[in-house]
């Protein structure tokens, strides 16, 4: 058995996307992100009975996927707590037996699942955990670094911070700007081929990990940094704050899903308002970058029609005084957001 952890690794591709028995779309963000941003690396999906979320890719057994060219099964679920439940394990072993390696981004390491580890050792297959940070992360210094940085922040989890960062990085490059997407979660790392799994870093080293992720750069270079969690989330605010302090963004973009009322995975807590996140981000972000500013807003309008999305984005842009765009819909709204961020 070969094992590997996060970093600038070469992952075995293409992928069979494993959806387990997921019933909450937000928890399938790894599979959906790979489908949307790395479709050339995905051949199909594997779901268990009880799953109600699909990527729309062909349903395949591990053997069918291997015959179609897949070389790894990717666990496409980011569930609460990042666990690998017993109900998944027979399918993971079957993937190894079909000739596939396994790529995982859970808090629970795939190599720590005995039956999966034993099967990988017996078959000579790779188990790759991308949510394992490097061992040499320093404590943050707070030193101002050269280059420019943009951070996506959110009113909640799993509503578009990664999609927004990817779309903005791509748009910056299309405008002739020297820019890099900096991944901070398992899906982004799988798309980019490297990054820093921020929510697996010990709290004292969060800001240092963010500094390490986005080092000194040329004066006109932009690092577009994928945000994590939300500063207002009762469970995940810690990773958001460490990332904010360590990345020292010059610009931040607030990500929001119109119509979402409750915070993901935390019953009884309402989604923060956009204004609350602006206020928190400015107040806390000024600690390491006094010149931080809001560049605009990114809305996840997947649940709205084209006309409804346009009306909501136009109304909120007028109310908030900055551009509002959907990174998937793109168009003039995204062009305006890009211009505001680069201004």
TrEMBL record:
Alphabetical list of InterPro entries matching this protein: DgcN-like (IPR011669), DgcN-like_C (IPR035086), DgcN-like_N (IPR035402), P-loop_NTPase (IPR027417)
Boundaries of every D-glutamate N-acetyltransferase-like C-terminal domain copy: 139-332
Pfam families per the UniProt record, alphabetical: DUF1611, DUF1611_N
Ranges for domain D-glutamate N-acetyltransferase-like N-terminal: 55-133
Domain of life: Bacteria
PANTHER family: DUF1611 DOMAIN-CONTAINING PROTEIN, GLL3100 PROTEIN
Full protein name: Putative NAD-dependent epimerase/dehydratase family protein
């Amino acid at each position: 058995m070969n094992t590997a952890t996060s970093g600038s690794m070469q992952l075995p591709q293409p992928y069979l996307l494993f959806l387990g028995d997921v019933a909450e779309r937000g928890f399938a963000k790894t599979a959906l992100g790979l489908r949307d941003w790395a479709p050339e690396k995905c051949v199909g999906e594997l779901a268990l009975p009880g799953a109600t979320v699909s990527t729309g890719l062909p349903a395949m057994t591990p053997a069918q996927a291997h015959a179609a060219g897949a070389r790894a099964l990717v666990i496409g679920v980011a569930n609460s707590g990042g666990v690998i439940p017993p109900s998944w394990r027979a399918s993971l072993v079957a993937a190894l037996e079909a000739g596939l390696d396994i790529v995982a981004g859970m808090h629970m390491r795939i190599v720590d699942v005995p039956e999966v580890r034993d099967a990988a050792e017996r078959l000579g297959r790779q188990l790759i955990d991308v949510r394992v940070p490097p061992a040499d992360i320093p404590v943050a210094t707070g030193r101002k670094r050269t280059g420019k940085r943009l951070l996506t922040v959110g009113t909640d989890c799993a509503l578009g911070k990664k999609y927004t960062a990817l779309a903005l990085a791509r748009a910056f490059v299309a405008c002739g700007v020297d820019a890099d997407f900096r991944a901070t979660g398992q899906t982004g790392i799988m798309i980019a081929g490297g990054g820093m799994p921020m929510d697996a870093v010990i709290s004292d080293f969060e800001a240092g990990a963010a500094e390490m992720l986005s080092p000194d750069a040329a004066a006109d270079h932009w690092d577009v940094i994928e945000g994590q969690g939300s500063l207002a989330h009762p469970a995940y605010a810690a990773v958001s704050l460490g990332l904010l302090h360590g990345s020292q963004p010059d610009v931040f973009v607030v990500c929001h899903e119109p119509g979402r009322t409750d915070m993901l995975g935390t019953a009884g807590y309402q989604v923060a308002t956009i204004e609350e996140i602006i206020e928190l981000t400015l107040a806390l972000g000024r600690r390491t970058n006094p010149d931080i500013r809001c560049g605009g807003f990114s809305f996840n309008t997947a649940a709205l029609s084209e006309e409804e999305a346009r009306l909501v984005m136009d109304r909120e842009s007028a109310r908030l005084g900055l551009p509002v765009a959907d990174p998937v819909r793109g168009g003039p709204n995204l062009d305006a957001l890009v211009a505001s961020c680069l201004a």
